[in-house]
Amino acid sequence: MSDRDNNNNAMVGALMLVAGGIIGAGVALMYAPQSGEKTRKGIARFSKKVRRKSEAAVEAVEDFTTQVTEMAEAVGDRATEILDKGKDMAYSAKKGLVKAIADGEARLEKERARLTKMIG
Hints:
Blueprint: H1 3-30, H2 36-119
Helix pairs in contact: 1-2
């Protein structure tokens, strides 16, 4: 699942939660024992309050997704750096090993020649 799908699912979930709260509050206000004018004013005040809170929640979710995206990119960049460093180290080790083998072969050949000369 992509980051965009996760972001959309989080947004939908947050909006569904807010919508459920609004509907529940609206139903509760409809059954409250007060005049229609008071109820309408209460609904208007409550809807403004919920709207501000939902805007803040959406902004918080957007900020969070931005931070997560930035962290994921930073981790990816760091992983690439580590991989490149590992490749460089492996190449250096390989180069050193090949040189050690060549040096060993040269010494072996030198010793073989010396022994051959001694033996006859």
